Amino acid sequence: MSQVVLLAEAAPLWTVFFGPLLGASVALFAVWLKRARGTYIEAAEVRSSSLVDIAPTVRERIKVFLDEEPVIQLGQIELRVINTGIDVLKDVRIVLEFPEATRVLDCHLNPANVASSTIPGPFRTIEINIPVINSYRLHKDEIFIKAVCDGPIRGWKVKGRGENWSVHKTSMNSIAMKYFKAISSVAIYSWVSSICLLAIALVLEAIDLPPNSPWRGFIPSVLTQTAMALLFGSLLMATYAVSRSETEGRQ
Question: Which residue ranges make up each domain of the chain?
Fold first, then answer.
């Protein structure tokens, strides 16, 4: 029986969307399970700048002073601190540590009324005390830290732990990559599920089913599922790529 006749046969509308929706549901559930493993205080590097990035011939002619003290290698790093879990965390204390050759000159918090910072000697660490920090997923609670330093700012570390939470270091690029992987997994699950159903349809076609068999309507349905899954995954990828390029353009 020709494929044209099979495609012309009617099939229930819900079966057209079964493959893509099944794959997307499985992928999203897997991502949810991974994110629900624990609670972290996440310190992500947003951006950094330094006089080292300026051409050496120009940099040697620049003289920088802070409170009448000379600054040799001025740099600034901005971090974002969030609570990745769903529970409210209290009395959070984290420590930012910079390389030994670095001296922290000043620290600015935004918002300033939700946390406090101290720079103990030998002035290469910053202690951040947060009385309360809500869930970022539920309340979009976030704290931005700008640290002005004299010396290299690369290789910074973050330390801290408490009851039912720990802290880890990341970057905004790493966070974007996590979302890209999640979206990719949704698309891949959709593709794979529909391709598997397509293989079943081809086997059923090879069996030469009787004219009154209910399985005959399954074949054109699966072929449509495969096409829709490819379109569904491609649209997800394209949407993420556009949103990411717009975000990077605003920074």
Answer: 3-32+176-250, 40-163
Check residue 63 and report its DSSP letter: -
Q: Outline where 81-164 has alpha helix (H).
A: 136-139
In the three-class reduction of DSSP (H, G, I as helix; E, B as strand; rest coil), residue 95 is classed as: strand
Higher-pLDDT residue of 93 and 154 is 93
* 82-114 per-residue burial string, b: 16 or more CB within 10 A, e: under 16: bbebeeebeebebebebeeebbbbebebeeeee
Q: Which of 143, 64, 73 is nearest to 110 (CA)?
A: 143
CA distance 220 to 9: 7
**CATH code of the domain occupying 40-163:** 2.60.40.1170
Indicate the residue type of 189: Y
**pLDDT in the model for residue 89:** 93
Among 64-78, 86-100, 118-132, the least confident range = 64-78
Give the H/E segment covering residue 220. helix 218-250
H helical segments located in 81-153: 136-139
d(CA 187, CA 230): 8
pLDDT digits 0-9 by tens, 122-171 = 899 999 999 999 998 889 899 999 999 999 988 899 999 988 899 988 87
pLDDT at site 4: 37
**pTM greater than 0.70:** no
Q: Are strands 69-71 and 64-66 parallel, antiparallel or unpaired?
A: antiparallel
| Contact (Cβ atoms closer than 8 angstroms) between residue 221 and residue 227 | no
CA dist 72 → 61, 62, 76, 100, 114 (Å): 12, 9, 13, 15, 32
